[in-house]
């Protein structure tokens, strides 16, 4: 006896969609390690959650990717559509839509891997040579007489440094050594500026700085020649290249490293406000004690006033008015929404009606007829052009084969008169016969006077 439908259903292991997606996700995540994947960003989305979602593609395929907020905050650049990047990601599945995706743990611009290897190799080499040793680092002056800035005169870093120096110690003069901070010529420009500052000895403190950027943008400060010039300086130097997370070879060789240009300016100068704060410290303590007593009294008075205000009938009336305003706004939005739906329906009906009006069909048929007529004219013209070319070719061939063409090459045609028989052999004529000889530009009449055979 065959099993019933109930027994068959009991024997089957029936998956729900949620269970299926969950188990597929577990298989994917357990089957692949962390992968490095390279491609171009497209369809980038940045919701309010702080996560980013994008598609990673190459010329043949694409895959959906996600990067959550905590990982995105560690990026040193802003992802944009069209950027070619290298990501380290986990293979997974978004269960909500059953979509295969990569969950990115790290992202860098394509090509930075080679730059990082070169950076690490140079860092190890210089470290083994002792260029990073603290024994070679010079102390910073407590009160510099003149500060030299080695940076780009058009960058944001110089504005930050000058702003902090002007606020903290405006009496110290500043000398700017302009240089390139990015590009192929930047290392040589930095070397020249550093050597010029060392040669002139106009400053007793130098600040080498630029704003943040990618590893490629900061490569001028990872140049071996720049590092060796910094190491040989007799003037103390503060390196402030990039943001807090950026480290360059120049930072390790310099006498002091600052996480930002503004912090470099703070390290270079004492704060006059600190001195004033020490002088006024006792006065502030007395003033604060008085203020604290007045504040406590005022806070007590304010609490009593608030309790009185909360019990006032006007507050209840104000809440009811606010509730009435809220209901009015909701009613207006509902009416507007319903009106929009009706207008959309009317627009749809009008578009359908426009599609069945005979005038539109006639116009479309006329446009089709005009198109076919134009195509027919073009086809006839093309056919006529082909026939003309064929005729011209045949005329050329006929002219080539024509006996008259031989006349232009120095030959002639002779006929026997009066029969006009073409003369091919000497035996066709007798002395006294008349001959007609045609050459290129005319006809000659002659009489045979003698026949010489070969």
From TrEMBL:
Reactions accelerated catalytically: Exonucleolytic cleavage in either 5'- to 3'- or 3'- to 5'-direction to yield nucleoside 5'-phosphates
EC number: 3.1.11.6
GO biological process, any: DNA catabolic process
Compartment(s) where it occurs, according to its Swiss-Prot or TrEMBL record: Cytoplasm
Record keywords, A-Z: Cytoplasm, Exonuclease, Hydrolase, Nuclease
GO molecular function: exodeoxyribonuclease VII activity; nucleic acid binding
Subunit note: Heterooligomer composed of large and small subunits.
Alphabetical list of NCBIfam families matching this protein: xseA (TIGR00237)
Function comment: Bidirectionally degrades single-stranded DNA into large acid-insoluble oligonucleotides, which are then degraded further into small acid-soluble oligonucleotides.
Record-given protein name: Exodeoxyribonuclease 7 large subunit
